[in-house]
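This week, think about what follows.
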Amino acid sequence: MIGIFDSGVGGMTVARAIEQCCPGYPLVYLGDLARMPYGPKSPAMITEYSHRNTEFLLRQGAQLIVIACNSAASTASSFLRSHYSQTIIDVIFPAVAKAAAISTTGRIGIIGTRATINSGAYEQRLQMARPDCEVHSQACPLLVPLVEEGWLNHRETKTIVKKYLHPLRDKQIDTLILGCTHYPLLKRVIAPRIGRRVHIIDSSVEVALHLKSILKADAELRTQLYDPDTPSRFFVSDMPSPVHGLAGTIFGRPVLLEQTDV
């Protein structure tokens, strides 16, 4: 099974993209809603939560881990890779590679949680991938709670998004990385407020395409993970009322959510 974890429901956008891009590979998903959002937490705490999440997914039979949380990917990915032999994929690398490849001017914007932006992970990887790029980052701490509350098209959400994006518009970026897996759920709000000419990089799509390329290149891993007869499972550490509706919106169908302690 492919294990996926996030601080909340946002990582379900990654799960859905993988489901569409890699059919026949069962998933086990963990959304740590009891401790979300991870963005304001310290790096040490995010790393501890990520460790627990990975242990849980491995106990459920996961043989490959996808860190579908940018806050966790930016602070805990090195720790996890040093502690586990399983393949671990994070959402940052694929998005960076895509942005570096398609930006014409080299002016690239990033929006994410405070933890993701403060880590500098995107800036560092973008500078490595494209040394001539000019990176502009914006922390958007209110967006995850708005998504988790189901406020995807509210007037207040649109106002907050516009305020967050204003500095990036002033920098005349031509590419914007959605540096949080919750943000694809706000893509219809973000797109008109950042400008029609700006390329929007959806990290959930890019990580699914990256995983597909890994499976294509590794026959042993492909054989190990492919199991079309095993159903995917979706766990959450808390069950707030909006979560079922959000899961249904993301997958386009009812999703059975199982509550668990992590």
